[in-house]
Structure prediction request, 653 residues.
Amino acid sequence: MNRGKTIREFFLGKALDPLKSETRHSLALVAFLAWVGLGADGLSSSAYGPEETFRALGPHTHLGLYMAIATALTVFIIALAYNQVIELFPTGGGGYRVASKLVGPYMGLIAGCALILDYVLTVAISVAAGVEALASLLPLGFHAYKLWTEVVVIGLLIILNLRGMKEAIKILLPIFLGFVATHLFLIVYGIIAHAGNLPELVPNTLAETSQLAGNIGWIGVSGMLLLAYSQGGGTYTGLEAVSNNVNILAEPRVHTGKMTMFYMALSLAFTASGIILLYLLWNARPIEGQTLNATTFKAIIDSLGMGPWGSQLSLIVVLAFEAGLLFVAANTGFLGGPAVLSNMAGDSWVPHKFRYLSTRLVTQNGILVMGVAALAILFWTRGSVTLLVVLYSISVFLTFAISLFGLCLYWWRHRNELEHWLRRFLLSLLGFLICFSILIVLLVEKFTEGGWVTALIITAIAALCIYIRNHYSQTKEAIRSVDQVFANQPFGPHVGAIEPDPENQTAVFIVGTSRGGGLHALLWVQRMFPRHFKNFIFVNARTVDSHAYGGEGAVELMRVEANATLKFFVDFCHSHEMASASSLGFGTDVVDEVTHQCEEISRTYPNAIFFTSKLIFEADNWFIRLLHNQAALAIQRRLHFDGLQMVILPMKV
Prediction:
């Protein structure tokens, strides 16, 4: 084993076999683990979402009661609406798939771009808020090192996710459970301890609302409440993560997805609204260098009478679990973001390599992009949670609004075919109106405070995606024209198989899905080396990517299609009285799999020379090479190193 492979396995773990049924079963998440891996995103936002909402109220803190009620209600409304997404799209895809199928491809593109930014910000804001929570325990002098601490945490999360999703979640599970236990106790105790203030809270809130309305009008009050509510909008993004990642859930997926959504909505509504209620009951006030959660929890813990050391130790434990859960939430970005990129790669909006799995059966390229992009945004914002929340909330509610609008269209179009369509339509419409209203308020009020950056990033990503898709469309059209040229190649009169003789000269063709490309290579070799080769072997290696691995029976379907293509080539040769055979392999790395097959063939057919085609573009550059798999050159290098001869045939497009 070479040193590079040894180091890679030390950090990422040993390779997994994608064709073993137990592998898929071992990676699939049951509802509870999915709640941990995906629900942590929403639950952890209670560390910064309620605080941003409460701060936005300014001196009118009694209005926080409306925020607590609205938060709990909205979470359940959006969760119920997204259960419909799980039912309609049981293979995953979330907002991107909903918008693409129900509204249109370009609206799907906008939703996909917003989701990519959303998940990048999930990583950035979760890590930044986690470090802020830990910094609340330390002197102000430590704050100069927060940014570099965030960089280290993201680096560790990248390595953890490259090892595999379930492995990452199991490691982070104790942190998640610790957060739930400590915060459940603090919220319940904090409300009970000051329950005597609850009877006064409602009349005081109503009195302040009337007084404020007399000064700025009811429209002004409504705008203030909507803006404050919008500030904590990042709280809800975890709901999208479930529908986006249904493909990684255990069977039955729809039921598992709905159970996960229920766990998530219940825990999120209780925690977020409960913390806002604690702010009101315990008269929370900001202190420099500390989060509002830290000051409120400190007051609650001090009331328990455990003494200075006991109180300080308890606060350390609580904030450590809070920071830990935020780091778990960052993990959601590494699960959801690559899934969105994979779905968009399937539709050719982004490079196809984002569909490829690593040997650990995770979308390695997507994980790396999420991590690098999160680091870039952290450096740009200097880790400012307030600024990150603005970017985050806009991207979250843009995705929600588009997805729920798509559901409205679906139920309306199928109103004559489906029972209970009106109830589902009204639920989707209510969710859409809420999310769209919040989105407009955020864009108007926060455009100069970071909102324009969100719009610019989404627009730039969308423009790049359109360019990429146009290139893939032109390439596909060129390949289709090649296929049409060779589609009319007549089969010969001979009927029956002709077995290859291992001692004869053998031409081995590495072919893909294009039959025209394979015939182009076969006829080119016969023309250049007339009557030299007696055996013709066709090799195909299929990449088990995230789409194939996510769907039940997809790998078997891929096997059937690949065998049909290989049979076409073999039958063509037999019809012209040429000895022929084929070889099919599956793996996560096409270069490794093809190289392995070629080495096996060379042992059986020692006089073999290997051939494959490579697309040649008139204007070749680094970006074109990024969009297209350079497998032919990599395979040639590997085979030449092993002493095997390989020729790459140009195929101009």
